[in-house]
Request: fold
Amino acid sequence: MPPVENKIILPKSELPTTWYNVLPDLPEPMGPYMTPGGQPVSPSDLAGIFPQALIDQEVSTERIHSIPEPVLEALSIWRPTPLVRARRLEQALGVSSRIYYKDESVSPSGSHKSNTAMAQAFFNRQAGITRLTTETGAGQWGTALAIAAKQFGITARVYMVKVSLEQKPYRKVIMNLMGAEVLPSPSQETQAGRRALEENPKALGTLGLAISEAVEEAASRPDTNYVLGSVLNHVILHQTVIGQEVKKQLALAGEKPDFLIACHGGGSNFGGLVSPYVKDILSGQKIRAIAVEPESCPSLTAGEFRYDAGDSAGFTPLMPMYTLGTSFQPPAIHAGGLRYHGSSPIVSALLKSKVIEAAAVSAADCFKFAQMLAWSEYVIPAPESSHALALTCLKALELESAGKPGCLVFTLSGHGLLDLAAYQAHQD
Amino acid sequence: MPPVENKIILPKSELPTTWYNVLPDLPEPMGPYMTPGGQPVSPSDLAGIFPQALIDQEVSTERIHSIPEPVLEALSIWRPTPLVRARRLEQALGVSSRIYYKDESVSPSGSHKSNTAMAQAFFNRQAGITRLTTETGAGQWGTALAIAAKQFGITARVYMVKVSLEQKPYRKVIMNLMGAEVLPSPSQETQAGRRALEENPKALGTLGLAISEAVEEAASRPDTNYVLGSVLNHVILHQTVIGQEVKKQLALAGEKPDFLIACHGGGSNFGGLVSPYVKDILSGQKIRAIAVEPESCPSLTAGEFRYDAGDSAGFTPLMPMYTLGTSFQPPAIHAGGLRYHGSSPIVSALLKSKVIEAAAVSAADCFKFAQMLAWSEYVIPAPESSHALALTCLKALELESAGKPGCLVFTLSGHGLLDLAAYQAHQD
Reply:
């Protein structure tokens, strides 16, 4: 019996050459970003920290955006990524459903974050920017940005949530190896950081505060812009290569998805998978798209839909989104990338319109199914990705009980080889 | 311009179905393994710790060995592995030579060790063995064995060199995650370990001592066998899938190799790449095959060719090999997989007959070219693999100076994502 090929691999020639903008597909138009004073934010208000090309993408009404040649070249280093049929996981679960995972862990940073990092670094370089600041939680985004900055010859400074930096010192090693500077947040470098340290010298840090620090620094220096790893419309735009590839790969496998499942922190991983399917869902195709978050940080499932700031200090515009409030202090769970009070305006709008669903899973289920994936597929998922995995497994078991197996697709947004402290905590 | 495909990927149908035994190709027959008393070791002497199938392979005079179906199935989880043209590394070096690396880092354990781990676990299970002991230095072999034991339903206990365990706690996390037990060596579990701790309670451990502990335990329990991750003939046999795939992949690229380069600790990585080429070299093809070791642990380049034991306590047979002596205490360099006093009898025989060459590289060069690989290809090599990388880069620069570019192939035996402490040490 010849070995079975479980990976659906597209040739380089099938790399998507455009991004898909879902904004025109939203059933209700998204409300504008607002200033704290209650005025709509104008594109020029953002010009201090973003290049014009990204501001244009943020509010674009065009569905199709060409990917510039240098970005295509950078993406082609690792894309298209494999879609993998997880047959051994199916056997371990004892289900007859077909489970596929889109393997974004093969990128230079080990996660999907590289998709937008390369694009954002390019557009900033094109605009003459030579220095970028950003924040990172788990370290995946910081790593992706460090590599993208290296690719396009830009200096990068990364504010890393202090608790994550302490849990994951090796993330800093990689970022440093790639030439980026890494500071623990709260830091003494910004007013926002100093204020937080005055209030609590032992503050663990939050993603919201790290964003404040990175934005504050970028706003104060003309050579420096700010880049964000998730939440914003242009970030989700860049991630739509994921869903476009999945569509082609499922077609090659002769499959149509019943479930599209991705974890949700700021929303870019989920939005990137689902955006290219929104028109299909609206036209009546029976696809359940589910964003998965931790029970301990339930922005979508327990948050309120309202205008709120993206950061804790209130430097960012107010955005219409599901939020737990900027003062929400997430517990120090290890899925650092999901420790965010807010959510993506696009994902929020899709949820509010009931185009998609949201679900929360427990840390215990995440670890249980992560170990099952490790034992069956020999893949150790990032703690973030284990949320998508856990819901996929739970749904597959539900379908089995109901006698209605189906096709489930989830995003393995990253590998867990740099997050083994999280696994260690469960073993001890 | 369409994106260039740098990876040469073979379909599953091209997975080698046989192993290539180089023993019959050696210009001079290898001397038999000897007992400490000076008698040739008989196959039955090994039966206490190895299954018959592996003993047969150890002394086989057949060139072609069929790979059993369950091993093929296990290998097909990740094989064939890609051969990658490192164009961006070539540009960074400024050379017109073509550099290829065989990417063994894509295995479940992140290194080439899985190739033989799967085979050894299978043959032991087939012989009714339910428990395996082994040693590990850097942790790559222990990880590979833990996964292979899981695959074939065997319990595994890993003696890990203490200094490596302290430098790389996350290797233990993975081995535990896969269900294996991990003990620091020297341990209190064996006579060899207790003796070492009596002599020096703070002993850092060596690969030789960890082997003694694992062998002692296996010899004392009928349900337990011992498995070794390198050195022995049957281990090199299992690794020949590497060289066989490289041959096919280079043919697809229209290339013939001028250099075949791999790092050398116990010899299996190098032997696996080069064995299928030995007949070609002997028949006059101009291929320079070079085994690379650290300057600080120079078994091949500064050792003596003589009979010596494979472990420090003298439990193993005496083997004809290049050795620094069993009392050699390697410095705590981070390439733990290369901290071994001896070498593979096959590689030693090839070196003595001048079929292959050996070279030593400095830690500074390893780090320098590892950073260049990270900056150009966005790949972080295992410290072991950085030795092969460094020599490849140095040779490519030499060829460039001489105006004679060529085709260089090295094995990326593993990735460095679990070895970031080594990089951290260079950064601090």
Remarks:
- Chain B touches chain A through 40 residues (CB under 8 Å).
